[in-house]
Specification:
Layout: H1 15-18, E1 26-27, E2 30-34, E3 39-40, H2 47-60, E4 66-68, H3 71-80, H4 90-100, E5 104-112, E6 118-126, E7 131-134, E8 138-140, H5 145-175, H6 179-192, H7 197-209, H8 213-226, H9 231-243, H10 247-260, H11 265-277, H12 281-294, H13 299-323, H14 332-352, H15 358-370, H16 374-387, H17 392-404, H18 408-421, H19 428-438, H20 442-455, H21 460-476, H22 481-491, H23 499-517, H24 526-544, H25 547-552, H26 557-578
Parallel strand pairs: 2-4, 2-5, 3-5
Antiparallel strand pairs: 1-2, 5-6, 6-7, 6-8
């Protein structure tokens, strides 16, 4: 996962200041610099180039940080590769420097005018990262021109050193996570040499660390404009584009990265993982599917593909419910992803059997449950539990499949197994209670929840609210007051309820009793009065202690208290008169 980038790719030019290279590439602790003959162009005479390069070698030897290779050493090393020193153009110089592990080279070409003045174009090359520090072109006269040319290049070498030094400090600050200080040093380095690709890439990484993603992406794109095959920039750009919401651009950057390493499965999996973590699991599936075309039974690829498909299904369902009015059921796209996840995971199970991670097996069951394929979920749950009989997670999902498939007793037994494995399981007993309540088996539900609360007193209110919710939704809201009263009464049987929940239960219990009793009182006969008086009395008793709950919920409790009191008085008067 990308998450926070680790700054492991730093400008190698920084090493020229931070630490010595290998002894073979140095002279007394100073960095070796290869300076071949300056190359004449357009028929210019070559004696100027030989003399100017020799003069520059002398000047470089006065530095405390760098030392020019002796001309004789360059000739000998060139001979070893069957190259004449006069033929050491810039490309061959870079190649020879790389072979000899010489970290820096200075290349120059020149043209000559009729008055024998020379115009020089030179650059300093950092060999390890192939970066070029282009010097300002200059013209020198015929008289003493070779010395003047060497002095011009030597003077500009100081700017190169300043850039290297700033890049080194940038790298040091980055290494200690001082991002702002590091950024200032990188900016200083780029002010000297805007074309320093490695420094610019480091700057891109720093901007990412500072959560300045759009700027970081822009810098990575500038790196790629200069070096389209820069692997680090392709990887970073892919991640940033995805995070910023342009998933297709992110995929394209990752495709280009993988084009550089087409057959490397490890890299493909890592890139796909980063793509998924950046928020594009469907794009990650695309990268893995290419590998599966070559090796369809590869367990590692199938496992990762299954992970991405499972995440993509969840994302698709979330998007569906958020964007589709009155969305019901499973989104078609989510269903497709879940099936792809199951197929991939089952290939892993075929390859690894009991060695497969429980979390992947859980995902298979969860996917079948989401697809409402309960028989398949039950069958696979039994299969997986043969290998993982002590897995409370698998038992839990297996129980869900059984309950959703209409096998409640078996589901209750499966959750009993969960509780045996983990008596402190946070919701197994509550789910048992909920399922029993849904089936109308209230006495069994109360027994389960009472046992659970005895072991977990702090969960009493949660158990009570579970029964209350069922009674309110299926009873009171549906005007089935008998069902509601039975549920509210049952909820209050749970031991250890808070005073606040008891007041809430009493209010709705009292209101349900009042509402059920009121229509029966309309005849106002002796029979109706005798029938309804106990109901109004019970309603008043229950409602009388609920003022705090009613006030907190903006309920006009007094109207129900007054009405109950009035009906009690009427009923008592009718009964007295009738007697």
């Amino acid at each position: 996962m990308f998450g926070r980038l680790k700054l492991v790719i730093v400008a190698s030019a920084a090493a020229l200041v931070l630490a010595p290279e290998m002894a073979a590439a140095q002279d007394g602790g100073r960095f070796l610099v290869m300076i071949p003959y300056f190359q004449p162009l357009e028929g210019a005479r070559d004696n100027f180039g030989r003399d100017a390069s020799e003069e520059l070698r002398k000047l470089m030897s006065t530095l405390v940080t760098h030392e020019a290779m002796d001309r004789g050493d360059i000739e000998d090393e060139a001979d070893n590769f069957d190259i004449d020193m006069r033929d050491l153009n810039c490309l061959r110089t870079i190649q020879l420097s790389s072979q000899l592990r010489v970290p820096v080279a200075i290349c120059a070409t020149y043209t000559e005018t009729p008055d024998q003045s020379r115009t020089v174009n030179a650059s300093i090359r950092t060999i390890e990262d192939s970066e070029e520090f282009v010097l300002e072109p200059f013209t020198v006269p015929r008289q003493d021109g070779h010395r003047l040319a060497a002095q011009q290049i030597f003077a500009q070498f100081d700017r190169y050193n300043n850039q290297v030094r700033a890049t080194a400090f940038c790298s040091q600050y980055a290494g200690s996570q001082q991002w702002e200080d590091a950024l200032r040093q990188c900016d200083a380095a780029l002010a000297i040499n805007p074309e320093a690709t490695s420094t610019r890439f480091l700057r891109s990484q720093l901007l990412r660390e500072l959560d300045r993603n759009p700027e970081s992406l822009e810098e990575a794109q500038r790196v790629l404009a200069a070096d389209p095959f820069h692997e680090g920039a392709l990887q970073l750009a892919g991640y940033l584009a995805t995070v910023e919401g342009d998933a297709e651009a992110g995929r394209e950057y990752y495709r280009q990265y993988l084009d550089i390493n087409p057959g490397n499965t490890t890299i493909r999996m890592r890139i796909a993982y980063e793509q998924a973590q950046a928020g594009d699991p469907a794009g990650a599936m695309e990268f893995i599917s290419v590998g599966l075309e070559v090796d369809p039974e590869n367990a590692d690829l199938n496992e990762q593909f299954g992970n991405f498909a499972f995440t993509a299904a969840s994302d698709a369902q979330t998007a569906y419910t958020m964007t589709t009015p009155d969305a019901e059921g499973l989104a078609p796209e989510a269903a497709q992803y879940y099936r792809q996840a199951i197929d991939a995971y089952m290939k892993v199970f075929a390859a690894r059997g009991s060695e497969m991670q429980e979390g992947r097996l859980r995902n298979i069951l969860a996917a079948h449950i989401q697809l409402e394929e309960f028989p398949q979920a039950i069958e696979k749950g039994e299969q997986f539990l043969q290998a993982h009989s002590e897995s409370e997670v698998l038992w839990s999902f297996y129980a869900d499949a059984l309950q959703r498939g209409g096998q409640l007793n078996d589901a209750i037994t499966a959750l009993d197994r969960v509780l045996a494995l983990n008596p402190a399981h946070p919701n197994a007993a509550l789910r048992q209670g909920s399922w029993l309540i849904q089936e109308g088996r209230m006495d069994e539900a109360i027994a389960k929840l009472t046992d659970y609360v005895a072991q977990n007193p702090n969960q009493a209110d949660q158990a009570g609210r579970m029964i209350f919710a069922d009674a309110y939704q299926k009873g009171y809201q549906q005007e089935d007051y008998q069902y509601a009263i039975r549920g509210f009464t049952a909820a209050k049987q749970v031991p250890g309820l808070s005073d606040g929940l008891v007041r809430q239960l009493n209010f709705w219990h009292g209101l349900a009793v009042y509402t059920r009793t009121l229509p029966l009182a309309d005849p106002q006969t002796l029979a109706s009065a005798q029938q309804t008086l106990p109901g109004f009395q019970e309603a008043l008793r229950l409602l009388s202690g609920t003022a705090e709950y009613a006030q907190a919920n903006n309920i006009n409790l007094q109207q129900f208290l007054d009405a109950s009191t009035q009906w009690i008085e009427i009923s008592e008067m009718i009964i007295t008169r009738g007697r």
